[in-house]
Write a structure and sequence with these properties.
The structure is a single chain. The chain is α/β, with parallel strands linked by helices. The relative contact order is 0.14. The chain has two domains: 110 residues, 3-Layer(aba) Sandwich (Rossmann fold), CATH 3.40.50.1010; 43 residues. The chain starts with a strand and ends with a strand. The protein is 36% helix and 23% strand. β1, α1 and β2 form a beta-alpha-beta unit. A five-stranded parallel sheet has the order 3-2-1-4-5. A three-stranded antiparallel sheet has the order 6-7-8, with no helix packed on it.
Length: 163
Amino acid sequence: MQYILDASFFFAENHLEGDLWTTAEVAEEIRDHVSKMRFAVLTAEGLKIGGAGPAEVSAVKEAAEKSGDLRVLSDTDISVIAFGLSTGGTVVSGDFAVQNVCRHLKIPVKSLLSKTAKKKVWKLLCSGCGAEIPAGEKDCPICGSPPKMRGTEKRANGNQRRR
């Protein structure tokens, strides 16, 4: 099985059997000594570095915009998701935003935690009247209250549940 590793994989003692890949952006993000050692050992054991093309990066940004996760994803996160999209490999990440975008793009994802993120769409809602606020607005155009991020998850029957 092919796994695409994000930086969080190298920050803790994790072990996977299979074809291990990461991106150049992840390699640059690893700075502490212990994580660098883990990276070096895995590289010696066959960890490969790859990347995705501009079409995959655009597709990831579009999906992240729709899900509401774009503002919290780093370029490194986007590179990992895009590489997973281009290869069909399983993305390994402890980041819920990365997992959520992978789910929206139907990319297999494996959590480093015991729990995985549910597929969500993030929206700005007014803290006063509950109206949906367009992205970029600082206050509700209806009542003037500040917005709050709220996630909705899809239930099996297709209905959305607001969190």
